[in-house]
Amino acid sequence: MKKIVALFIAAAFAALTAACSPANKMAGASGEVVSPEPKENKQELTILYRPRDKNSTIKDSEFNRRYIKQFEEQFGVKVRFVAPAGANNIEDIKKAFASKLYAKDGPELIFYDRTFFLLDQLTKQGALVNAKGRIPNMDKMYDSLLKDDMYYIPVGIHYDSIALNNEKLDELAIKQIPLDWTKKDFRQIWDKWLDKSPRFFIFDEYDELTEMYFRDLNYYDSESNKVLMNTPEMKEAIKNMRNEIFSGSYKLNQGYTYENYYNMFREPQSEEYQNVLKIIWSEEYRRDRLKDVHFGDLTNLLRASEIHNAMSKGLTVLPEQADKKAVLKSYGFAINKNGKNLELAYEFINGILSNETQMDMLNEVYERYNFYPVNKEIEKDIKNYPTEKGLNEKALEVMDYALNQLKSGELILDADFNRNEKNKLYGLALYNTFKPVFSDKTYSEEELSQELQKVEDELNLRVSE
Hints:
Elements: H1 2-17, E1 43-49, H2 62-75, E2 77-82, H3 90-101, E3 109-113, H4 119-124, E4 153-159, E5 162-165, H5 166-171, H6 183-196, E6 199-200, H7 203-214, E7 220-221, E8 226-227, H8 232-245, E9 250-251, H9 258-266, H10 271-280, H11 283-288, H12 293-298, H13 304-312, E10 315-318, E11 326-335, H14 342-352, H15 355-360, E12 372-373, H16 379-383, H17 393-408, E13 411-413, H18 414-419, H19 421-431, H20 434-438, H21 445-464
Parallel strand pairs: 1-2, 1-3, 6-9, 11-13
Antiparallel strand pairs: 3-11, 4-11, 4-12, 5-10, 7-8
Helix pairs in contact: 1-3, 7-8, 9-10, 13-17
Keywords: Signal
Protein name: Extracellular solute-binding protein
Organism: Lutispora saccharofermentans
């Protein structure tokens, strides 16, 4: 089915690209974008998106609504949003998405919000416009966000923090953690925390252990395009993670079988899963946990006010470990080569990257997140913004460290991270380690090899499609 969809997209693109005239940048001699003359019958700018749920759209953001209204009034156009409708599965959604993109006079823009549906495939098939040199205000973006091929243009970024519970750090007599801490440093803190008493083992703890044991394994060979699951390193990681989980360091339900653990982590309607939700909201768990994932995810390290707020809640706020790639969340746009009015698309993105509009982003909470502008020219203005002044020195130190990471290129944009084949496969590889980790009986060496070889063969079949 994936091959059929790919052929459908490729054929549609080949047939329709020839009908599209080359797009010309609308810029005057000064480099400023020239506004098109509004017509009596309003032109439309169409933005295609794939909502993460039935009610999610770009218009849910007050910041976006303000900018869209301003854009419509300035250019005498109507901004319209469309999403594939009536599709029941992922392959149908892909077809519906493609049919809109490759239609003559199709939507001009695609909106992406931390998930990048078909972006890699559309880029490889030449369906998107390289915005490099077409949008003047892109020159104002942080250099590390710019590449030779700009098929995705981020307009807002978010650098998640690591937030550790000060009560637990005090119990462990840990006074200070350097900003350039490492994975080894975190593991040592984790082990000290476990040594004090058995800890809860639910969603966040499981995620931490999988990161520790599996993230750095060589489970994909890029040269041969092969998944590698049946390896000594993978077997060792599975055994070690299983041993840690059942070592007595965690509070486990002694009557649980593999089926219970499967329900606990994979079946939201199950009793086991619902019991975990009760634990998450309990005061006991809140006080016991080492890492506050909720606050960490929401705290943008590029905003000193957010760091200050998290610190006031009794948290130590840190960047990602120095020897671990830190990922920037983002939202932004891609430009459809078959779009009806590409000049308007360039104008739309140029406007959202302007100093004024980017500053307006500081007033916005978008789906719980405070995004940070991608425009480097307003950095000093941001530091003097009312919400960013009068903060504690440590918050400013952490923000400056994060900004330096952004400027030096140490942070990777989520769109680029998700295009990496190994990172794409991580979730699938991880999913298939669950059974041997939580099985009722420890696998023998031969049983584990057979299980992993079966998984490896299945994943390689997927990769080759």
